[in-house]
Automatic annotation (TrEMBL):
One of its GO terms (cellular component) is nucleus. It comes from Bionectria ochroleuca (Gliocladium roseum). It is found in: Nucleus. The keyword Transferase does not apply. Keywords: Metal-binding, Nucleus, Transcription, Transcription regulation. This is Transcription factor domain-containing protein.
C-alpha cells in the first residue's frame, strides 16, 4: 500500500493485491477484497508496454488473473448482457486450457447475477427468450462451440490416470476440474427450484410442462457430474483448493437436502448420502479456507431449519394439495447460500465488516423482501413446481406404452466403481456433449427416474 500511496507501483504490487484480495475474500472481508481487486484493475488499465517477452508473459498472466478475480469475487454484479451475434460459433483454435477456464468465468458471473437478482412482475418467465434464464443458458451452450476437443472429457478421463500422474501435471488438471465443476454448476443454479419459484411468483398463467421436464433433465444431468467428480477426486486423493468449487458443491447440496425429505425410502437414502458426500468434500476444503468452513455451518443451519408442517397449516395453499406431509425451510438463508459472496459469511448474510454505523441502514424494501421470500417458498414437500399456484395437474412425461417399457427395476443397476466410471463416461458422451465425447451406453440416470420425477421434481437420484 505504501508503493501505491507513493506512486511507485510495480508488477509485484499488482500480484500482491491479487493475493491479498483472495485472502480477504476467503476470510469474509468481501468488501475489502473488492476494493483491492478494483484498485489493481484500475492500475492495470493505466499500464503501458514493457521491454522483454518474459516481462510481457508475466504481466499478461497477472492481468488475466485480475480479470478472473473480478468475475469470480465481485459482489457488485453488472446486469446480464445480451450476446453479440459475432460471438456465436467462434473459430476453433487452441488458446490453452486457462483461456477457456477464463471464458467460463464470464458465464459463471452471469449465473451469479441471476441468482442474486430480484424479480418483479414485469420480468418475462424463464422460458421466454428475453429472460435472464434464457440469456445465461444461451451463453452456457455457446461454450460448447468454443472449447476444443482436446480439453473435453472424452480425451481427459481422470479415472484412467493414477494419483501420482495427476499430481505431476496438477496445473493442467486443476483447470480441467474447474471447468467441469463450474460448467455443471451453472445449469444447477439456473434450474434451482427455489430460484425458479422466485421468478414465477408473479406468473399468472399455466407453466409449460415441457419446461418442467427440461429443467429437471438439466438438474439430474449436471448434478450427476459434480457428484461423480467428488467421488473421483476422493478416490484419486486429488485435493482441490479453489473455493469456487466449494460453492458449486454447496449449490448441489441444497438440492440434495430438499430430496432427503421425500417419502420414498430409496430416494431419501440416496439424497441423504449425496448431501453427506457434499459435506465431507466441503469439510476437507474448510480446513484451508475459513469461508468454506462457514459454508458448512450455514448448510447445517439450513438443514436444521426444515420443519414438517401439520396438515392444514397456514401457507399450504397449493395447486395439488394432498395428504402428503409438507415442509417449511428458512428461505432467506437458502437464497443467501446460493449467492457466492454471502455463502461464506456468518449466517450467510452480506459482508458488513467495513461500513460504519453511519453507512448502514436496513430499508423497508429489504424488510419487505425478506417477508415475501419466507412466505412464498412453501414447496419443499410438494411435487416440485407442480405445487405452484400456476400449475395444473400434469400429464405423464411419456406416452402410456413408453412408460410401460421404461418401468425397470432400480435394483438391477450396477453400482460398482467400475460401472459408475463407465456410466459417467457416457454422461460426458451423451449429455455433456460440449465437454465430453460421443457414446451409446446407458446413462447414470435411468429413464424411469426421469419419468417419475416429472410428477415429483424433488424425488430424483443424482448419485
Amino acid at each position: 500500500m505504501d508503493k501505491i500511496a507513493d506512486g511507485e507501483v510495480q508488477l509485484s504490487t499488482l500480484q500482491s493485491l491479487c493475493v491479498l484480495s483472495i485472502c480477504n475474500f476467503t476470510s469474509g472481508k468481501v468488501t475489502q477484497a473488492g476494493l483491492n481487486i478494483a484498485m489493481a484493475d484500475h492500475i492495470k488499465d493505466t499500464a503501458h508496454g514493457v521491454e522483454t517477452d518474459s516481462q510481457y508473459n508475466e504481466r499478461d498472466k497477472c492481468f488475466r488473473s485480475i480479470s478472473v478475480l473480478k468475475k469470480l469475487q465481485s459482489s457488485v454484479l453488472p446486469p446480464i448482457k445480451k450476446m453479440v451475434p459475432s460471438s456465436l460459433y467462434p473459430v476453433h483454435r487452441d488458446d490453452g486450457i486457462p483461456f477457456y477456464a477464463e471464458k467460463l468465468c464470464d458465464v459463471w458471473q452471469m449465473a451469479r447475477a441471476y441468482a442474486a437478482s430480484q424479480s418483479n412482475a414485469n420480468d418475462p418467465p424463464p422460458w421466454d427468450s428475453r429472460s435472464e434464464f434464457s440469456e445465461v443458458m444461451s451463453r452456457h451452450l455457446e461454450l460448447d462451440c468454443l472449447i476444443p476437443v482436446k480439453y473435453r472429457f472424452r480425451l481427459n478421463n481422470m479415472a484412467e490416470y493414477d494419483s501420482e500422474t495427476l499430481l505431476q501435471n496438477r496445473g493442467y488438471w486443476a483447470h480441467f476440474i474447474f471447468i467441469q465443476f463450474v460448467y455443471s454448476a451453472i445449469p444447477c443454479l439456473l434450474n434451482h427450484p427455489f430460484l425458479l419459484s422466485l421468478r414465477l411468483r408473479h406468473f399468472r398463467h399455466t407453466i409449460p410442462e415441457s419446461f418442467i421436464q427440461q429443467s429437471y433433465e438439466q438438474l439430474t444431468r449436471f448434478m450427476g457430474w459434480i457428484i461423480y467428480f467428488i467421488d473421483l477426486l476422493e478416490r484419486k486423493s486429488f485435493q482441490v483448493s479453489d473455493p469456487i468449487l466449494a460453492h458449486c458443491v454447496v449449490i448441489v447440496s441444497t438440492i440434495h437436502l430438499q430430496h432427503s425429505f421425500v417419502e420414498d425410502p430409496v430416494l431419501q437414502r440416496k439424497a441423504s448420502r449425496g448431501f453427506e458426500k457434499c459435506l465431507r468434500f466441503l469439510k476437507r476444503m474448510g480446513q484451508m479456507w475459513p469461508s468454506v468452513a462457514l459454508m458448512v455451518e450455514n448448510l447445517k443451519m439450513l438443514q436444521g431449519s426444515v420443519v414438517c408442517l401439520p396438515p392444514g397449516a397456514a401457507g399450504q395453499e397449493r395447486a395439488n394439495a394432498s395428504s402428503e406431509p409438507s415442509f417449511s425451510i428458512n428461505a432467506r438463508l437458502l437464497w443467501d447460500i446460493l449467492i457466492y459472496d454471502r455463502a461464506g459469511q456468518v449466517n450467510a448474510r452480506a459482508d458488513s465488516s467495513m461500513p460504519g454505523s453511519t453507512l448502514v441502514s436496513k430499508t423497508s424494501e429489504e424488510v419487505a423482501e425478506v417477508r415475501a421470500v419466507d412466505e412464498e417458498f412453501d414447496l419443499i414437500g410438494s411435487a416440485g413446481l407442480t405445487g405452484h399456484k400456476s400449475m395444473i395437474h400434469q400429464g405423464p412425461a411419456y406416452a402410456p406404452d413408453e412408460e410401460n417399457i421404461l418401468d425397470l427395476d432400480e435394483d438391477t443397476l450396477d453400482t460398482t466403481p467400475h460401472a459408475i466410471t463407465n456410466m459417467a463416461i457416457t454422461i460426458g458422451d451423451v449429455n455433456l456433449e460440449g465437454l465430453g465425447g460421443y457414446g451409446n451406453e446407458e446413462s447414470m440416470f435411468l429413464a424411469q427416474d426421469y419419468g417419475r420425477a416429472i410428477g415429483d421434481w424433488f424425488d430424483f437420484d443424482a448419485m
